[in-house]
Amino acid sequence: MTDATHGPLSIGALRAAVVEGREPPPLQAIARLASYRWFVVGTVCIGSFMGQVDASMTQVLLPRLELEFAARLSSVSWVAVAYLLAMASFTPIFGRLADMVGRKLLYAGGFLLFIIGSGLCGFATDLTMLIFFRILQSIGAALLTSNSIAIIVMATGPKEHGRGLGLQSAAQAIGLGVGPAVGGLILDTLGWHWAFWINVPFGLVGLVLGWLVIPQTTKVPDTGRFDWQGALLIVPALTAVVAVLNQGHAWGFTSPALLSCLLFGIVFLALFFRAERRATAPLLDLHLLGKGSFLLGNASNFLSYATLFGVFFLIPFVLVRIYHDTALAAGLRLSILPVMLGLLAPVGGALFDRFGARAPTCCGMLICIAALALFYFFLDGTAGNLPLVTLALAIFGVGQGLFISPNTSSIMAAAPPEQTGQAGSVLNVVRLIGMSTGIAGASTLFALGLGGAAGTTLNVPTASLVAASRDVILLLGCLAALAALISLIRPGHRKAHRADLARHMTA
């Protein structure tokens, strides 16, 4: 294979590509293979797998980090929240940039930043340093996330898009399922630093393969000017809002710091919405929210992921502090949730194709409510009820699996065909904000239930931990009930002919 403008790939061509900032062609020996497109898909799957392993593994780390750094819950939760918040802020920015300048260099740069951020996280000597490096790691992950679907679509033919994107979804599901168990094993054998260092060898493989395998961007569409105003406003707006949720009990709900942060967030959000509505090529096309089914779908999308990651945040503390599980045992139990979610997601998609979104999404959330009820009544610290807590995790995963796929399909089906890219960006940002909000809200309520001022689970009586956990479960139950209600009132029309495209935008 040759570079359309610079001939066959060589060391000189690679060096020139780096110096000139242009995309190098793939390695000729790989590009001429009949199965070349699957090498591209496999390379993208490495990034997808890494991202999900890291996201799910972090939840198991939080109780250990609280102990290692003798830190408040509000501080420890930022290790997870900052990562998700940066992803929400930078994914639409990088997606827009990739549309303008090409995808290969940005994708390879994502691997490089993720490797650097992961390595530095392992060397962090205090919590502030760790959170800063997590943000760097997340920026790399945002570069990978914003380009992955487009690269697979670019490499595969129209009849193979579904297979390629299905393989990516499988890689994500596997990563999400093994992350907690791998994290627990590492904590019990090597120490928390290795939970980040383990990303480095996988990232290096992904970086080398990305450079040698990913094809050049053949067509860069004329998408207009970059929305600098929106890019500069989205990061402080989202950060201020989530900081209010996460730091309320630590700062005090009437403290000048919290009130200032709240005002700051409202102002920047208003400015962001104003800028996006006026931009000719916005980062996020907020006019889509004017469509009732799109708005309702994203509202339930936000609530479902807030509930899911509220559970992801709470349960490791429950298993380690209340039931005295080892990190490995806690990780194995927590893995049950994403495994069940992954197994039931295709069932949810099939139900959407046949019945539309209303029935499966409403039933999915009702199953989640039933699981949370099991948590509430049987999470009491007695060893005899631990199997029922584990069963509740499995049932909750079933409910989320039935909900997420049809809800996503409904959101994407509500958008005009020419705006599927923008609809996917809005969906992903709402999903990531929901994750951040769920962790922040669960952290705040959990700390308040433990007395608020200390804000830690260390050396706290089991009865107090159980009571605080049940407070969080009630909150999550309310969020799930609201998601079920929204699902019940959403339009019930089926758009099965667009379901495949819709499910492909979930990554």
What's the SSE blueprint?
Elements lengths: L1 E2 L3 E2 L2 H10 L7 H4 L4 H33 L4 H4 L1 H24 L2 H19 L4 H29 L5 H29 L4 H4 L1 H15 L14 H24 L4 H23 L13 H31 L4 H29 L2 H21 L7 H28 L6 H30 L12 H28 L9 H6 L3
Antiparallel strand pairs: 1-2
Helix pairs in contact: 3-7, 3-8, 3-10, 3-13, 3-14, 5-7, 5-11, 5-17, 6-7, 6-10, 8-14, 11-12, 11-17, 13-14, 13-16, 13-17, 13-18, 14-15, 14-16, 15-16, 15-18, 17-18
Features:
single chain, two-stranded antiparallel sheet, Growth Hormone, Chain: A, mainly alpha, 2 strands, 77% helix, 507 residues, disordered N terminus, 3 domains
Characterise this structure.
The protein has a two-stranded antiparallel ribbon with strand order 1-2. Helix content is 77%, strand content 1%. The longest helix is centred in the first third of the chain and has 33 residues, at 36-68. Helix 15 runs antiparallel to helix 16 (386-413). The protein starts with a strand and ends with a helix. Strand 1 (2-3) and strand 2 (7-8) form a beta hairpin. The model is unreliable at 1-12 and 494-507 (pLDDT under 50). It is mainly α. It has 3 domains: 33-226, Growth Hormone, Chain: A, CATH 1.20.1250; 228-278; 284-507, Growth Hormone, Chain: A (Up-down Bundle).
| Average predicted local confidence, pLDDT | 80
Strands, count:
2
Going by CATH, what is the homologous superfamily of the largest domain? MFS general substrate transporter like domains
Supply the CATH class of the largest domain.
Answer: Mainly Alpha
* Radius of gyration over C-alpha positions, nearest whole angstrom: 22 Å
Query: Uncertain runs with pLDDT below 50, 5 residues or more?
Result: 1-12, 494-507
Q: How does the major sheet shape up?
A: 2 strands, antiparallel
In percent, how much strand structure appears in the residues?
under 5%
**Could you please say which CATH topology of the largest domain applies here?**
Growth Hormone, Chain: A
With helices defined by DSSP (H or I, 4 residues minimum), what is the helix count? 19
Q: How far apart are the first and last residues' alpha carbons, in Å?
A: 30 Å
Q: What is the element string, with H for helices and E for strands?
A: EEHHHHHHHHHHHHHHHHHHH
Query: Which structural class best describes the helix and strand composition?
Result: mainly alpha
Assembly of the depicted chains: single chain
Helix content: over 70%
Shape: globular
